[in-house]
Write a structure and sequence with these properties.
It is built from six helices and six strands. It is of the alpha+beta class. The chain has a domain at about 130-250. Strand 4 and strand 5 form a beta hairpin. The longest helix is centred in the middle third of the chain and has 28 residues, at about 105-130.
Length: about 260
């Protein structure tokens, strides 16, 4: 229905395009003549969650939306549910709950944005490294006597897999150091697939099956010193008798060589 009313008409206080879910109506300024209101205009009430007027409140959803918690104590952003602090938040904030200006929710959103920005930076660096043909000295098997199988395969896929596991620029730099200096790796132990994980979970079972399809037998764990820190490096051992880089992480709070 096409309806034209003055901008300051009280009708707009309770009615607007978008106050019903899946509404496709729009609103625009016009010089066309004013039209009469339908008889059932007052019977059409906004649906739950869309009862506010964004032009006046600056908020898309109002507190009746199911996204909003009943109180601060039951809020999903509140990680201290059931504690005394949580209950006190519910008591003191029950009458002045303001989700749009919640410090706890804002901090969680900001951390999420930081993670997204960090992911973009790491993903850009990973693509830059993979596009550098000088990184791949050879795709043939190279002999390194310090490795358990004494044979190492360095391919674009193995480098991509190694970099994907890096969660910071520091880890990427350490990974590239390992990539270029595998002769400095010092053997520590071997590790079975799924070790330390709950194998009753379906996602962990799928992960192991995926690796078995790539003919991975187990992992060999090494240590390496880089930038005054020691790192643990996992190499995949294949059924064909060679290893390739897979994962790296820093040994926290230990700058001296582990015993």
């Amino acid at each position: 229905m096409k309806l034209t009313r003055p901008i300051d008409d009280p009708f707009w206080n309770k009615h607007r395009p978008g106050d019903r879910w899946n509404c496709k109506c729009s609103l625009e300024a016009t010089d066309e003549p004013i039209t009469d209101l339908p008889d059932d205009a007052d019977d059409e009430k906004p649906q739950r969650g869309l009862r506010g007027n964004p032009a006046k409140t600056g908020q898309i959803f109002d507190k009746s939306h199911p996204y909003f918690p009943k109180n601060c104590a039951s809020c999903g952003f509140n990680r201290k549910k059931g504690t005394i602090t949580s209950r006190m938040m519910g008591w003191f904030n029950a009458g002045m709950q303001n989700c749009y200006k919640c410090r706890i929710a804002d901090n969680c959103v900001e951390k999420l944005l930081d993670n997204c920005r960090n992911y973009d930076v790491l993903n850009y660096e990973r693509r830059r490294i993979l596009s550098d043909k000088a990184v791949f000295k050879s795709k043939e098997l190279a002999v390194f006597r310090n490795l358990r199988t004494q044979r190492l395969l360095r391919s674009s896929k193995s480098l991509d897999r190694l970099l994907v596991h890096c969660k910071s620029m520091e880890e990427i730099r350490a990974a590239m150091f390992v990539w270029n200096n595998p002769h400095l790796l010092k053997y520590k132990t071997d590790s079975k697939m799924g070790e330390g994980k709950d194998m009753s979970l379906e996602r962990n079972q799928r992960n192991v099956m995926k690796k078995k399809k790539r003919h991975v037998r187990c992992y060999q764990v090494y240590e390496i010193e880089y930038d005054d820190n020691w790192w643990l490096v996992k190499l995949e051992e294949h059924l064909r008798g060679f290893e390739q880089p897979y994962h790296i992480r820093k040994i926290r709070n230990r700058k001296n060589r582990p015993s």
